[in-house]
């Protein structure tokens, strides 16, 4: 996985994005389907990242076989650190001394930049700048191997090696910081006491402030009888079962769907989870947003995301994007110019909100949807495209975030907290039908010659289960 990708993911993981309550409350129950089947992050277009579960067992066993001269290592502490630096790449690995029992380590800051405070475990930032702060991640010898994949860095500008609190410290800064909104990483290595501490500073946090945080850390090391390198037989059995479940889940995601399993234009897709059916009536591409029939600013969820990218005539400005492969490696950077995709939808609430057989109740209907970019495989099935596109971070372009719609023609919740959290929801009576328009920004080259053959729609009312995708076509698919 490229460092570009990892830094992007860290920026996302380090903040709370202003996503409507669509995905935070009511649809959360639907996402439980996914969580029950997955132990890794799943997206409509998944960039997969290995779970940080107890995969360290196999790695530690292999390291144990490889390490010789443990008597020598014992005098050196819990671990020896190997650093490989080549060009703009830096990689860390560790050989562990299994004769020493692992310890628990905690790290609390005594200094934080002005306004920052604890928001959640290990994450600190100001209330009015949520997500743009500092993360402190202590690692003992048990969990350090599970963090190994996070310790390969590319596009490194410099590794400054110094001493902080009588420990070897490495301060990693990255190339083109302003372009990629890159933060910085600081590592403290303590082989004598058996821990490594990583401090990640967001792009908005100066390097000097990260150093001050490290200098003021209050570090506590304690024994924990439950910490052990080897898995018990029971844990090994659970691990094997989990690995099998994960493999089965992955196989289900990869199996794809046939053309016949994709709901055609004009046909209703019945979603039992919410008792709603959705029918795509028509999908059309427009150069200018102002040419979309019935368009009004009142239907835009967040004008602050839209207005900076509109020309005076309603066409979309160009932006710089990254082309990523399935591993998150940056294949190219290029200029993209989006157009506007307007989708006419008919939704019917065929079940009452208090009629669900599982006892669940709702008070409104989800009207929004996301685009899914798919490709047809040699066996005739369709599945997620392996490569993806994202804006260069410095563009601060969020209109296509999560490939979701930015516009709803008939919003019921138009002001205050209701707009913020439930803009794409509407209260409907049993049997009620609504006709509405969703608008998406789509890069023009993703719709060559006006074709939508490789784009389908996934309504949030489906439950968004990647092992059982319920897709609606935007045009005829062969």
Question: Keywords, please?
Answer:
478 residues, alpha+beta, 7-stranded antiparallel sheet, 5-stranded antiparallel sheet, 19% helix, globular
Mean pLDDT: 84
| Radius of gyration, taken over Cα atoms and rounded to an integer in Å | 25 Å
Shape: globular
Main β-sheet, in a few words? 7 strands, antiparallel
The structure class reads: alpha+beta
Amount of helix: 10-25%
Approximate strand percentage:
25-35%
Instruction: Give the tally of β-strands.
Output: 26
**Annotation field: number of helices:** 9
**What is the strand arrangement across the widest sheet?**
4-5-6-11-10-9-8
Give unreliable regions as ranges: 1-75
Short summary of the structure?
This protein is 19% helix and 32% strand.
Model description:
By secondary structure, the chain is an alpha+beta fold. 19% of the residues lie in helices and 32% in strands. The chain is built from nine helices and 26 strands. The protein has helices at 3-13, 22-37, 56-66, 70-74, 177-180, 207-215, 233-254, 303-306, 416-422, and strands at residues 79-86, 89-96, 104-109, 117-120, 123-125, 134-140, 152-153, 156-164, 167-174, 184-190, 195-201, 217-222, 268-271, 276-286, 319-324, 330-336, 338-349, 365-366, 369-376, 382-384, 388-391, 407-408, 425-426, 433-443, 455-459, 472-473. A seven-stranded antiparallel sheet has the order 4-5-6-11-10-9-8, covered by helices on one side. Strands 13-14-17-24-22 form a five-stranded antiparallel sheet, with no helix packed on it. The longest helix is centred in the middle third of the chain and has 22 residues, at 233-254. Residues 1-75 have low confidence and may be disordered.
């Amino acid at each position: 996985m490229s460092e570009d990708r990892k830094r992007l993911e860290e920026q996302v993981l380090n903040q709370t994005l202003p996503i409507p309550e669509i995905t935070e409350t009511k649809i959360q129950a639907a996402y439980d389907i996914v969580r029950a089947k997955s132990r890794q992050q799943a997206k409509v277009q998944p960039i997969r990242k290995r779970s940080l579960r107890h995969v360290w067992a196999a790695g530690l066993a292999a390291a144990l076989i490889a390490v010789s001269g443990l008597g020598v290592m014992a005098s050196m502490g819990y671990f020896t650190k190997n650093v490989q630096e080549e060009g703009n790449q830096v990689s860390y690995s560790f050989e562990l001394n299994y004769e020493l029992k692992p310890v628990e380590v905690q790290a609390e800051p005594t200094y934080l930049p002005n306004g920052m405070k604890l928001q959640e475990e290990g994450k600190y930032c100001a209330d009015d700048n949520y997500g743009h702060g500092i993360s402190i991640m202590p690692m003992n010898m048990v969990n350090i191997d599970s963090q190994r994949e996070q310790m390969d860095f590319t596009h490194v500008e410099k590794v400054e090696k110094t001493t902080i609190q009588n420990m070897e410290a490495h301060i990693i800064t990255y190339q083109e910081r302003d372009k990629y909104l890159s933060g910085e990483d600081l590592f403290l290595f303590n082989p004598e006491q058996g821990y490594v501490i990583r401090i990640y500073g967001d792009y908005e946090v100066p390097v000097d402030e990260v150093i001050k945080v490290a200098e003021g850390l209050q570090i506590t090391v304690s024994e924990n009888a439950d910490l052990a390198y080897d898995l018990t037989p029971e844990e090994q059995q659970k691990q094997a079962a989990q690995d099998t479940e994960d493999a089965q889940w992955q196989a289900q995601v990869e199996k794809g769907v046939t053309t016949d399993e994709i709901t055609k234009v004009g046909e209703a897709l019945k979603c039992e989870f919410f008792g709603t059916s959705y029918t795509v009536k028509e999908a059309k591409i427009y150069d200018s947003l102002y040419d979309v029939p019935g368009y009004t600013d009142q239907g835009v969820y967040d004008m602050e995301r839209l207005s900076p990218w509109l020309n005076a005539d309603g066409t979309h400005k160009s932006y710089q994007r990254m082309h990523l492969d399935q591993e998150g490696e940056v294949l190219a950077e290029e200029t993209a110019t989006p157009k506007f995709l307007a989708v006419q939808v008919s939704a019917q609430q065929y079940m009452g909100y208090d009629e669900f057989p599982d006892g669940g109740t709702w008070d409104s209907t989800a009207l929004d949807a996301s685009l899914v970019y798919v490709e047809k495989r040699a066996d005739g099935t369709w599945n997620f495209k392996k490569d993806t596109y994202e804006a260069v971070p410095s563009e601060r372009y969020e209109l296509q975030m999560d490939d979701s719609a930015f516009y709803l023609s008939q919003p019921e919740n138009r002001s205050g907290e209701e707009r913020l959290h439930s803009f794409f929801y509407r209260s409907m009576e049993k049997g009620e039908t609504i006709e509405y328009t969703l608008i998406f920004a789509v890069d023009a080259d993703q719709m060559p010659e006006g074709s939508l053959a490789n784009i389908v729609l996934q309504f949030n009312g489906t439950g968004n289960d990647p092992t059982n995708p319920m897709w609606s076509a935007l045009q005829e698919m062969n």
